[in-house]
Design goal:
About 60% of the residues lie in helices and about 0% in strands. With about 160 residues, the protein is an all-alpha fold. Helix 2 crosses helix 3. The protein starts with a helix and ends with a helix.
Length: about 160
């Protein structure tokens, strides 16, 4: 009886966990802001998944419950209703809120340094390593002793032994 109750509670907990995880993003969109046409709604969601919620920062506007995310979802649908293309919608919102609103920022002169920095750091590191290794290999010179110096070294070594 005790193990049966434990199994039932574990099953109930599993079901509640799965339902809460799967319903999280679905609760972000209100039914009144959705398009009736499934194709237009799918397009709106595709565009919205490219936009970052500026409050949550690591969620798209369709995964966020914040007020700003809702405003952006409505703006996406409004621009779609006005006949804007996906690119026009993204450009309009990025111009209004900055490139940070895009989950995959576009390449521009302003952020070129950010895109190039990892490559430049790697090249600089490789150049420094090459210079270091070259200096190590050329810094070694063979020292040749004369016969007198060898004899003196042998005597020193033999005197040092007990």
């Amino acid at each position: 009886m005790h193990t049966l109750l434990g199994h039932l509670l574990a099953g109930l907990l599993t079901v509640l966990t799965v339902v809460s995880v799967l319903s999280g993003p679905a609760l972000a969109v209100d039914g009144d802001e959705m398009f009736a046409d499934p194709a237009r709604e799918a397009r709106a969601r595709d565009v919205g998944r490219q936009l970052r919620c500026l409050v949550c920062q690591n969620q798209s506007i369709f995964d966020s419950n914040s007020g700003l995310a809702k405003d952006l979802r409505v703006l996406v649908r409004t621009r779609m209703s006005e006949g804007d293309s996906d690119t026009e919608i993204l450009t309009y919102i990025a111009d209004r809120y900055g490139d940070y609103v895009l989950l995959q920022p576009r390449f521009s002169v302003r952020n070129a340094v950010l895109w190039a920095a990892p490559v430049l750091a790697l090249l600089l590191g490789l150049a420094m390593m090459a210079i270091y290794l070259k200096s190590r290999s050329t810094g070694r010179t063979e020292v040749r002793l004369t016969e007198d110096e060898r004899e003196a070294a042998r005597k020193l070594l033999q005197e040092g032994r007990p």
